[in-house]
Amino acid sequence: GTVAALQAPKPEASSNSRRSLIAMVVAGLAVAAVVAVVAVSARAEPKADELLTQDLVLFKMEPPPEPWSPPANLWMYWGEAPNKRFGHSGDNIRHLVKLGRLAGGEYRDPHFLFDYASQTFRDLSEACCTTMLVTPMKNNMPIWNANSAIAQRLRNYVANGNHMIFTGGSLVSIEFINRYFFYNIEPESTSGTFKGSGYGNWSPGPFRKLINDDLPWQYKLTPDTLYQDHTSVTSLGLRSLPSGTTVLYMTPHSSPVFLIKFCQRLSERHGEPPIKTVPRDCWRHAQRGFPCSCGTITYIGYDWHYDQTAADWDKVLLAAVEYQSDPDVSETFSPNCKQPPKIVEDPHAPRAPPMCGN
Fold first, then answer.
1. 89-97 and 311-322 are packed helices; what angle lies between their axes, rounded to 10 degrees?
2. Within 10 Å of residue 122's Cβ, how many Cβ atoms?
3. What average pLDDT does the chain have?
4. Strand partners, 261
């Protein structure tokens, strides 16, 4: 009886061992779960060096430039003055605005103007809303008496709501404007021997865009800053610019890019040519029965001799070309008329002879 009593397990000891076994099983399961979570998370997060090989990256080239064609109202002076040799200023600008096709060993285009004394320019000067692009006059400058019929035709062309763009890093373009449009625009030298003296024509820049309410929308996407390229840029004194000028780029003393509003009015005297008028006085003359007609002169003082460094200046020139071609400005495509202009005939102009039977 004693031995049997010793071999029989006690109820409390059996219960305690069962609890210990359950606890060990639960702990083992918990450890296994933690190990599984760590393994899964380790498998979900790749190593740093694996990140470079798991994603597909498609490398693409830059998109092609937006197609551009010259406006239908664009003309280009292609007479004896421009340098038409390959790679020089005249040819570089011709290539930029995409005028001309090679034929017979030279570039030809229906919108090339070869002579201001031609019937073609006479027709253009008596109509509205075209743009005449004048490349740098490297070879010569057309010379006439400032009061001759050809010179008056130049003034009539601009005043009849047209646009004339002058380029060039020399003083020839400015001399042309001063002589035939009766201005006195002067270069400005802001450094060197002639600094502040009124002599010389070199400014080191940079030239900042003047952003204000007068800035035409075509120039809103042009670069904010233009730079001097050795001696390729001629900047003109701000104090010499005439009334009606809109400065587009400038330094504190000079501007290489600006617009001039040029106006003429009818003369009170019979048979006399129109009279140049300051834009701010046009309303007074209109009240007297002598209304004004106005156009635009644009000056861009870069010579385009080396087109490899002219990317920013190219954008400015293309904006100037587009300035006269905005159909939203008016029905006449003219930025000088917010409304379609009322055509006023000269009361002193000779009338057509009467027809037979009238």
1. 60
2. 15
3. 80
4. 296
323 close to 163: Cβ distance less than 8 angstroms: yes
Evaluate whether 139 touches 80 at the Cβ level (below 8 Å): yes
State residue 30's pLDDT score.
72
Residue with tokens 């005297």: 269
Q: Which residue is it, tokens 């003082």?
A: 301
- Render pLDDT for 67-77 as a digit per residue (tens, 0 to 9): 888 899 999 99
Beta-sheet pairing, 74-77 with 112-113: parallel
What pLDDT is attached to residue 3? 45
Q: 153-188: b or e for each residue (b if 16 or more CB lie within 10 Å)? A: bbbbbbbbbbbbbbbbbbbbbbebbbbbbebebbbb
Among 113, 108, 110, 138, residue whose Cα is nearest residue 125: 113
Spell out the residues 6+ positions from residue 183 whose beta carbon is closer than 8 angstroms to its own: 177, 242, 260
DSSP string, 130-160: -EEEE----S------TTSHHHHHHHHHHHT
Cβ contact 69:111 at 8 Å? no
pLDDT at 76: 95
pLDDT value for 214: 83
CB 155 within 8 A of CB 292: no
Inter-residue contact 233 to 222 (CB < 8 Å): no
Q: What's residue 2's pLDDT?
A: 46
Half-sphere exposure of 325 (CA within 13 A, CB side): 15
Q: Which amino acid is at 260?
A: I
Query: Amino acid identity, residue 127?
Result: A
